[in-house]
């Protein structure tokens, strides 16, 4: 339900044609909406007022597999060339001990450890304006050092954050109004 709420916040933003907001979905046994599939991974583009399916039936891949993350990043780069790229990882965070993410469909696969996050970013070969973790416990030195070669800025929750996480509507609207806006 929290992911659906965040997607709804994104669709309430005034997103210009100069911003491509892409979301990779999966890892959930029951989405709290009638759009996103419970059985297969998909890619959506978020637009003002809704989402548009871009890739359907990508299989059922663990969201905590670094290959899943790097494949998504590569797909975005190949299909949506941009002057700025941002990456936000939304889910549960376990910091230096257990890393990032949880997949309801593959609970035995565990989280994506910090070193696996680094492997995914290295394989994707994209320089990001920022990498953010809308997840608990990810603002630590290990994560910062891991993402540093791949991003100008690192944004993460310092300890725990509420389940609803970041508020997306306003800053996405601001970015759409001025795609040259300072990251800070």
Description:
By secondary structure, this protein is of the alpha/beta class. The protein has a three-stranded antiparallel β-sheet with strand order 1-2-3, with helices on one face. Helix 2 packs parallel to helix 4 and helix 4 packs parallel to helix 5. The longest helix has 14 residues.
Anisotropy-based shape? globular
How far apart are the termini?
30 Å
Which class do the helix and strand fractions yield?
A: alpha/beta
Q: Main β-sheet: number of strands, strand sense, barrel status?
A: 3 strands, antiparallel
Order of helices and strands: HEEEHEEHEHEHEH
Name the beta content range: 15-25%
Average pLDDT, rounded to a whole number, is 93
> Count of DSSP E strands?
8
Q: What percent of residues adopt helix (DSSP H or I)? A: 25-40%
Cα-based radius of gyration, to the nearest Å: 15 Å
User: Biggest sheet: strands side by side, in what order?
Assistant: 1-2-3
Low confidence ranges: none
User: What's the helix count?
Assistant: 6
What attributes does this structure have?
184 residues; alpha/beta; 6 helices; 30% helix; 21% strand
Question: Summary?
Answer:
With 184 residues, this protein is an alpha/beta fold.
Give me the secondary-structure topology.
Elements: H1 2-11, E1 21-25, E2 42-47, E3 50-55, H2 66-79, E4 86-90, E5 93-94, H3 95-98, E6 99-100, H4 114-124, E7 128-134, H5 141-147, E8 151-156, H6 169-177
Parallel strand pairs: 4-7, 7-8
Antiparallel strand pairs: 1-2, 2-3
Helix pairs in contact: 2-4, 4-5
């Amino acid at each position: 339900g929290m992911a659906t709420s965040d997607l709804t916040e994104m669709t309430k933003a005034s997103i210009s044609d100069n911003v491509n907001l892409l979301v990779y979905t999966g890892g959930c046994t029951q989405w709290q909406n009638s759009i996103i599939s419970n059985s297969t991974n998909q890619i959506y583009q978020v637009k003002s007022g809704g989402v548009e399916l871009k890739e359907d039936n990508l299989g059922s891949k663990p969201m905590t597999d670094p290959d899943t993350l790097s494949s998504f990043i590569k797909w975005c780069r190949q299909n949506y060339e941009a002057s700025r790229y941002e990456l936000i990882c939304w889910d549960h965070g376990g910091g230096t001990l257990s890393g990032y993410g949880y997949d309801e469909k593959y609970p035995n696969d565990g989280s994506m450890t910090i070193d696996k996050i680094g492997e995914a970013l290295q394989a994707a070969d994209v320089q990001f304006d920022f990498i953010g973790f809308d997840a608990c416990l990810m603002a630590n030195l290990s994560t910062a050092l891991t993402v540093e070669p791949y991003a100008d800025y690192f944004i993460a929750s310092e300890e725990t954050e509420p389940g609803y996480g970041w508020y997306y509507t306003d800053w996405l609207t601001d970015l759409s109004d001025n795609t040259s806006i300072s990251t800070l």
